[in-house]
Amino acid sequence: MADWEEVKRLAADFQKVQLSSTTQKLSERNCVEIVSWLIDRKLIDLIFTTDGKEYITASHLITNIQDELYIAGGRINLVELAKIIGVDLTHINNHLNEVLKNRKDIHNILGQLIDSSYVDRIAGEINEKLQQNGQISVGDLTLSYDLPADFLQHQVVEKHLGKLIFGQQDKNDAKVFFTEGFVARSKAQLRGALVGLTRPTSVASILNQIGLSEKLFFSLFDQSCMYGILSSRLPGAQYIPNCYLRSQVEWVNNFYKQNGYLEYDSLTRIGINDYKTFLKKQLPNEELFYLASVVVLKRILDRIEADIEECVSSKTYVDLQSNLPSSFTSKDISILLEKLLSGQNKQQTIVIEDFVISKSFLESLSSKCEELVKEKAKSVVESGKYQKHIIEIQGSQTKSHRSDDFEEKVDKKEERRKKAAGGKSGGGTQGRETKTKSTKKHFRGGNKNEDEDDEVAPSESKKQFEVVNESEIREILQGYLEEEGVDVLTDPLTTYLTPKLNEQGLQIAAEIFQTTVADRTASRKQTHNELQTKLNALISDVRLFEKGLKLLPADIQPQLVKYLLKTVCTDVATEILSYVAGETMSSSVPENFNNDQRLKFVNELSPEFKVPLLPLVKSLTGQSIDEFMSAAETALAACSMIIKKVDKKKDRVTVLNHKHELLEKLNHCDDLALVLHLATLIIFTTTTQCMLHASGRHISTVLTYLKSSLAEDQYTELMSYHDFVTLMLSNGSEAESAKVKLKEKVQTVKNIANEFKKVSTEKT
Question: Which residues does the annotated region (Disordered) include (predicted)?
Fold first, then answer.
C-alpha cells in the first residue's frame, strides 16, 4: 500500500510539473545589451549615469534639476549640479532649455541657475546695504554677488526698486542708487565745502574730503553753483570760488594801473592761465602788447621810444635793462626793440645785448683804436703776412686766371721775359739764351689797376686775415668803458668792432703796400741780380772742381763727385730754394733742410716751380755732375736767371784767387789736421792749375797723386805729418804724443805749401 501511495504521489508531481510553465532569468550583461539595442534604435530615451550602472529618463532628469536648485537655495552651478545628479554636464545643458521654458522664474546666468527666490533674497540684502550706506553701485554688487552687472541692475535692483529696494536711481549714472536722506546729506556737505573754499581747489581734493563720488559731485554741483565755477567737467577739473575770481580781477586792475605791465608768471600764480582771453575781457579799452614774459601798456613803449631818441640825439647809449622793470627779460627787450626801432632810429643805432648804442658813440670808440690799427697794418705789411695772405687768396683762383692777372702786375718780370724771349743778347750777362717765366705772385687783378686790386683783396680776406686781435682792442676799450660805467659792454663791443677795425686795417695795409711796392720792386731786382751773380760763381766753382777731380784716379772720382754734390752743389740748390720760398711767401727755411725735407718742400710748390726744381733736388743724391748742371740751368730759368757762358780767362783768374784764399787760410790756421788739408789742396792747385774739392779722408790719395811733383823730402814730410794726424784723430794712447809731433812739424808743412809755388814758378 505504501508503495502504491508513493507511486500516486510521484504521478501527481509529474502531472504538476507538466501542467506548470517554465520561468526564465536574464543576466546583467544581457540586460545592458538589450537596453543599448533599444536606445540605438530610438525605441526608448534613457540617460546613462556617470558610473554607467543606472539609467534615468529625461523627465526624471528635469525633476532632479528643479529639486536640486530648490535644495541649493535658488542658485546652483551647472557643474556642481551634474556631479550631484550623477550625469554628464552635456545632458544638463541639453535639457536646460526645457527647464527654463517650463519655469520662467529660473535664469541661466554664466553657467549658474538662479530662481526668483534667490533674486528676492538678495534684493532684500541689497536694500539693507542701501539703507545702511545711503548709496550703492552696481559695480560693488557685482563684486559682492559675483553676478553680471546687467543682471543685477535690471533683474534685481530696478525690478524691485520701490518694492523690496527703497531708494532712487541717479539720473546721471544709472548704475548708482541712493536714498533721499543720503542726497540731502551729501548736498549739505558739498555746500559747506564750497562755501569754505577761498582759492582754486581741485575737484579730487574736495571729493577726498567729503567722500562723494565724482559723478554725484557734478550732479549736485549744478544745484550749488552760486558759490563758484568749475574749470571743466573733466576728472582733473578745478573749483574756482567767486571770491577768488573777484580778487583776481582786483589784483590785475591795481597792478597794471600802477606799473603799466603784467607778468605772465604772476597771472599764472593767481590762477589765470588763458591770460589773453582774461585781459581782453577785463581790459577791453587798453592797447596791450604781448612780449615773451610780460604784457605791457602803450605808455611803457612811449617811454622807451623817448629814451632811444635821446640816445641818438646825445650820441651815447641807453641801458634798457635798467630803464625797465627787472621782470623784463632780454627776449622781451628784443621784441620791444623790433617794434620801436624803425626809420632813422634804426639806421643810427645798433643793439648789443640790452643796450641801444648810437653809431656816433661807436665811431668815437673806433677812433680810439686808430693808432693801434695803423701800427698793426704797417707791421703786417713789413713782416710779409699781408702779402702772403693775398697770395693764398689768389691761389684759390684758377691757374689761367692767375697767369692772366699776374702778367698785368709785374713790370720788371715782364720786361725780363721779353728780353729773354727776344733771342740771344750780349751785355754784362753774356747773352745766354734761356726760356724764362715770371714768378712774382703779388697783385693778381686781371685788367684792373693796382688800386682796384688793393681794394678787392681786403674784401675777400677780411674774415680770414687778422690785422688786430680782440685782446688788443679790448685793452683799449676797457679803460674807457669802465670810466663810463658800462664795462659790461667791453666784450660784446670788442667782438662787434674787431671785424670792422680789421677791415679798416686791411685797407690801410693795402695803401701802405701800394706806396712801398715800387721800392720793393727795385730792392727785389737788386737782390735778384746779386743772387744770380752768386749762383753763377758757385756753379763755376762746381765746374772747375769737377775738372780737377777728373785728374785723380778713376776709382776715387765717384767719391769726390758725391762729396761735391753733398757740399757745393747742395749750397746751390739751397740758394735757389730759399729764393723760391721768398717768392712764394713760404714760412719754410730751406737752409736747414735735409734732402727729404727739400723734396717735401718742392712737392708742395705750384707746378711752375715744382716741375723744374724736383730734378735739381733729386740730382743731389745722384752720381753725375752733368745731371746736376743740367737741372740747375732749368731751375735757374724758372727763377728768371741765366748761367753765364764759360770764359777761360775768368776761369784762370778764379783758380788763382782760389789758391790765394787757400794760402790765406793756411797761414792763419791753427787746426793741426786742417793745415795738412789746406797744404795738399794748395800743392794740387799749383801743380795742376785746377781746383780740387775733397774731404780729409781723400788727402792720402791726393798726396800719392802729387808724389811725382814733390821732392822726396817734401813728400816724406807730408806723409809723416799725415800719419801723425791719423794717430791724433784716433784718440788712442798715442794721440797726445802725435799732437806734440804735429806742433813741431806744422810750420814745416806750411813752408812746403808756401814755397812750392816759388819752386813751381822757377821750373816753369
Answer: 392-464
